């Protein structure tokens, strides 16, 4: 009667011991690797890992089955998370596209580099201009020996000096603009923004498949060359609207879940089609022999759009909102042999923390004026907690915004926010009220005033940075 429990106890002890040994081995190997990278230039050249950042567009926290049970099935994104570290508490830098991308590629808050809002093809409704003097992640990595590539969506400028090749990328194979009118015609307002470097191209097929094909071709090319490390920024348009899953994917979801509302079924199919592309990428890395020497990060630029039946569960709100549904995003990092498989971190971070992390892992020097913080210590020990203010800003036109900005700030367990420039600030305690239901702005004025002062200081800090391109440099597209 007592034999089985004893065996279970012994097995449990063995399992825990093995896990502890694995953690010790990985952290020791990681520490030795970091020391080796920092010791001399020749070691850096030998040790630099390949790096891939996969950025989805409007992929909500609730639309990735890694985090909780969902009507969406994302086995390949889940596979990526299982073989590395899953972050449960990461946020995008903004509730919309361009600012998060600007922050990711500069390591600085978006309004500090001239991108407080969406950069559009229509200059009369464009709310950002990336500072051409600010170094980019691609440029910094290229300086320390990397071959750099952007495949997919750029969305940070249509003309010089802010084209991808001028901002650090050796190769640009993708879409210069913002959203596509259709994933099969690849146009925006009827204009073709598909490019191979500066050349206009006319690819055929669904954009998600096209970008994936190009990425797999890139892996094959890199595997056959001299071993120079590479950085690939793979930025999908999906699952940003228009919600256009291939027909066979929609039929598959409807057959599996016939009672699902059409709008939701289309989004589920769209995300599952994207997930299949992640699977193709992982398989291509393995078949080309690059998998074990490559860091892969997967995340999104903001939360999902509720009016397109995207899910940010369990958080309140969605895209364009400073409630956590607009900010919380899936985030995972895989690096075989260096980051423990199956590790989970609840670190409070932002997407732009990718910048100093990759610079540090590549053996480069991290600039002192970055707002982002490296995740390297978290990768070695997920119990580390660093407290800092997290700042969010968005500028927009239209009746609800009037060309003004609205902001949010998180300090520890407290969050101060507004969701348009004319609404009063709201205050929430995220520890007690993670779904932001109980506004404490009037009940806790001490905390409110403390965060309001911090928020004003962030706004002042970015106030001197231009966010419109000089009129003399503008060209009509």
What does this structure look like?
A hairpin with a 2-residue loop joins strand 6 and strand 7 (191-192). Helix 3 packs across helix 8 (262-287), helix 6 runs parallel beside helix 8 and helix 7 packs across helix 8 (262-287). The strands form 4 sheets. Strands 9-8-5-4-10-1-11-12-2-13 form a 10-stranded mixed β-sheet, sandwiched between helices. It has a 4-stranded antiparallel β-sheet with strand order 15-16-17-18, with helices on one face. It folds into 2 domains: 48-386, 3-Layer(aba) Sandwich (Alkaline Phosphatase, subunit A); 390-473, Arylsulfatase, C-terminal domain, CATH 3.30.1120. 33% of the residues lie in helices and 16% in strands. The chain has helices spanning 3-39, 41-47, 75-82, 97-106, 137-143, 207-223, 247-256, 262-287, 324-327, 354-361, 376-380, 445-462; strands spanning 50-56, 85-87, 90-91, 147-153, 171-175, 187-188, 191-192, 194-196, 199-200, 230-235, 294-300, 331-334, 343-345, 349-350, 389-395, 405-411, 414-417, 426-429. Mean pLDDT is 91; it is low at 1-10 and 39-46. The chain has 12 helices and 18 strands. The protein is α/β, with parallel strands linked by helices and 477 residues long.
């Amino acid at each position: 009667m007592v034999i089985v429990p004893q065996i279970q106890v012994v097995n449990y002890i063995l399992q825990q011991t093995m896990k502890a040994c694995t953690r010790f081995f990985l952290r020791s190997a990681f520490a030795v690797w970091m020391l080796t990278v920092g010791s001399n230039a020749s070691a850096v050249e030998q040790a630099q890992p390949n790096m891939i950042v996969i950025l989805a567009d409007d992929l909500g926290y609730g639309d990735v089955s890694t985090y909780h049970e969902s009507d969406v099935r994302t086995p390949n994104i889940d596979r990526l998370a299982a073989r590395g570290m899953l972050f449960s508490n990461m946020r995008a830098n903004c509730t919309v596209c361009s600012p998060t991308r600007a922050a990711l590629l500069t390591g600085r808050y978006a309004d500090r580099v001239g991108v407080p809002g969406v950069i559009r093809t229509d200059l009369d409704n464009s709310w950002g201009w990336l500072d051409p003097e600010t170094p980019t992640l691609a440029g910094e990595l290229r300086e320390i020996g990397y071959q750099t590539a952007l495949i997919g969506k750029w969305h940070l400028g249509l003309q010089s000096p802010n084209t991808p090749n001028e901002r650090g990328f050796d190769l640009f194979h993708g879409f210069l603009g913002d959203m596509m009118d259709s994933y099969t015609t690849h146009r925006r307002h009827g204009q073709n923004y598909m490019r191979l470097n500066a050349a206009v191209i006319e690819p055929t097929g669904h954009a998600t498949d096209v970008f994936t094909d190009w990425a797999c071709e890139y892996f094959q090319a890199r595997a056959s060359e001299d071993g120079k490390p590479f950085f690939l920024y793979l930025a999908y348009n999906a699952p940003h609207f228009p919600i256009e899953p291939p027909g066979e994917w929609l039929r598959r979801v409807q057959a599996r879940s016939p009672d699902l509302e059409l709008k939701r079924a289309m989004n589920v199919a769209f995300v599952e089609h994207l997930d299949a592309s992640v699977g193709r990428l992982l398989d291509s890395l393995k078949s080309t022999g690059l998998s074990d020497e490559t860091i892969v990060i997967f995340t999104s630029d903001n939360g999902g759009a509720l009016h397109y039946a995207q899910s940010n569960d369990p958080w309140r709100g969605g895209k364009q909102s400073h409630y956590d549904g607009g900010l919380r995003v899936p985030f995972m990092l895989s690096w075989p042999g260096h980051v423990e498989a199956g590790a989970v971190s609840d670190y409070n971070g932002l997407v732009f923390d990718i910048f100093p992390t990759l610079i540090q892992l590549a053996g480069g020097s991290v600039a002192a004026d970055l707002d982002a913080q490296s995740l390297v210590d978290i990768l070695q020990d997920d119990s580390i907690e660093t407290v800092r203010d997290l700042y969010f800003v968005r500028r927009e036109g239209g009746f609800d915004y009037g060309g003004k900005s609205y902001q949010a700030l998180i300090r520890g367990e407290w969050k101060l926010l507004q969701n348009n420039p004319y609404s009063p600030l709201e205050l929430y305690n995220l520890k007690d009220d993670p779904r932001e239901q109980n506004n404490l702005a009037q009940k806790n004025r001490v905390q409110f005033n403390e965060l309001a002062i911090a928020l004003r200081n962030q706004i002042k800090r970015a106030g001197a940075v231009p966010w419109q391109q000089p009129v003399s440099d503008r060209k009509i597209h």
